[in-house]
Inverse folding.
């Protein structure tokens, strides 16, 4: 029987594309498609699937609501669910996570990414299902042991061993040399082995070298100290899927209180870690471009400031404002504007060196941190390179578009050692670049600050003048110099202050 993938999307074109993606996954997979989520829920009452692929924005209900309804049913509680969202749908992703989404795909969806994510989730679910099937068989086989005695007459297993075998937690015991003394069904299934095959073997054979080395190091600490190592995380791969486990190690003691081995327990927290990491990513990154946002920028600038202080180094903060972006966004539409911003982000990232940093801080504004610079000449060279990349034509909806950028530069630590101040000074320099022809860069100078302060003071005085009625309207005649006749009037606003 084929593995079924349920696809729910109100757009017929997307349904056809995603169904084709499922076909590309292999002959063992089949797609079931619905344009109406209500109909899909009704169909699920009498049918089952192994994977859900749901668009977030649908007229009848959101993807989060659909998943929540599926999760409310006992038969759909553990079916993995992929939600398809747009770049900027931060709140949508959080809502979907709360509803029980397992993974996300970003629209437009690549067939390579679709197939890779879907197969990985299906393999992970299959492995989990195999574990539960094995646990269920053990439970059924020994259901009467609790009533008739403490030991299974066929397997010789005690009731405690049977209980341990049914727990969805990795449990194993090793001796002082690292040889396996005991392992439960859950762990042996992850290695695709039976418990009997694992007993007596070295666990290092089944782990990646780094994981095996970490495990041995921790075992040595437990054996030498006689103390447990609680609450640490470890990653390893199973069926090509990277899993994260919350682990604990404790000493196995003999009757003399001597450590003769190590007991290890590990709980699979992969889904929880994914949700935590995704939430953190959403909080620190711009959803449209994938670049860090203003929050992460502030952390990075503060880190660079401290590094410069300790190492007597130099760095630069660049603020970029795109020229002519608003024209393209207004005339070609927001979708074209978004495409342009993503392309700018990619080009900007391509100009960075290893320790440099780029962020989108809002609208058509970006920030760049240049680290390990050596004087103004090196910064000038980098600014020129950035402008050259941004000035290259962009193909937007089949039409080449050209934009520029105005760049303001503040120097770290020469111009300041506070994030907010450096940002303000770079902003002043950027507006000076705009005032001097655009598509150029300007370094901050003290004169810019004086001009800005004077402009701000003048603006405040003008507002006060309006409130105090200090402006008067006067008319002045215009006289022809030859005829001395009045030929017109000019209106003048006078400021009495």
């Amino acid at each position: 029987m084929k593995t079924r993938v349920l696809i729910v999307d109100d757009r017929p074109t997307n349904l056809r594309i995603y169904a084709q993606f499922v076909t590309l996954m292999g002959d063992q997979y089949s797609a079931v498609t619905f344009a109406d989520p209500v109909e899909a829920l009704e169909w699920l009452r009498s049918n089952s699937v192994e994977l859900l692929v749901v668009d977030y924005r649908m007229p009848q209900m959101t993807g989060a609501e659909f998943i929540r309804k599926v999760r409310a049913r006992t038969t759909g509680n553990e079916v993995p669910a992929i939600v398809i969202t747009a770049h900027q749908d931060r709140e949508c992703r959080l809502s979907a996570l709360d509803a029980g989404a397992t993974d996300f795909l970003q629209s437009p969806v690549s067939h390579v990414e679709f197939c890779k994510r879907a197969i990985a989730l299906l393999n992970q679910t299959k492995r989990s299902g195999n574990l539960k099937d094995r646990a269920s068989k053990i439970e059924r086989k020994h259901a009467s042991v609790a009533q008739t005695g403490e030991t299974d007459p066929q397997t010789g297993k005690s009731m405690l061993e049977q209980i341990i075998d049914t727990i969805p937690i990795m449990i194993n015991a090793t001796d002082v040399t690292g040889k396996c003394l005991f392992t439960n069904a859950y762990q042996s299934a992850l290695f695709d082995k039976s418990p009997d095959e694992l007993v007596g073997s070295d666990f290092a054979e089944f782990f990646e070298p780094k994981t095996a080395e970490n495990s041995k190091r921790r075992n040595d600490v437990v054996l030498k100290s006689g103390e447990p190592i609680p609450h640490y995380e470890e990653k390893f791969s199973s069926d090509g899927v990277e899993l994260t486990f919350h682990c604990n190690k404790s000493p196995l003691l003999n009757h003399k209180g001597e450590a003769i081995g190590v007991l290890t327990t590990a709980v699979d927290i992969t889904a929880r870690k994914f949700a935590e990491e995704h939430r953190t990513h959403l909080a620190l990154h711009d959803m449209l471009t994938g670049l860090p946002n203003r929050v992460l920028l502030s952390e990075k600038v503060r880190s660079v400031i401290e590094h410069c202080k300790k190492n007597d180094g130099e760095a630069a903060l660049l603020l970029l404002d795109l020229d002519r972006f608003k024209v393209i966004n207004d005339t070609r539409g927001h979708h074209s504007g978004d495409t342009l911003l993503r392309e700018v982000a990619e080009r900007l990232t391509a100009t960075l060196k290893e320790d440099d940093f780029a962020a989108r801080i809002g609208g058509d504004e970006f920030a760049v941190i240049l680290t390990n610079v050596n004087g103004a000449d090196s910064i000038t060279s980098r600014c020129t390179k950035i402008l050259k990349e941004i000035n290259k034509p962009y193909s937007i909806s089949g039409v080449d578009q050209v934009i520029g950028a105005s760049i303001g530069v503040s120097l770290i630590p020469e111009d300041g050692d506070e994030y907010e101040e450096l940002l303000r000074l770079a902003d002043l320099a950027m507006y000076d670049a705009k005032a001097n022809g655009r598509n150029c860069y300007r370094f901050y100078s003290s004169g810019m600050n004086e001009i800005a302060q004077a402009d701000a003071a003048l603006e405040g005085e003008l507002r006060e003048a309006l409130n105090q009625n200090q402006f008067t309207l006067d008319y002045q005649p215009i006289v022809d110099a030859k005829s001395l006749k009045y030929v017109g009037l000019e209106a003048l606003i006078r400021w009495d202050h």
Q: What stands out?
A: Residues 459-497 form one domain. The chain has four domains: 3-134, 154-272, 286-444, 459-497. DSSP finds 17 helices and 19 strands in the chain.
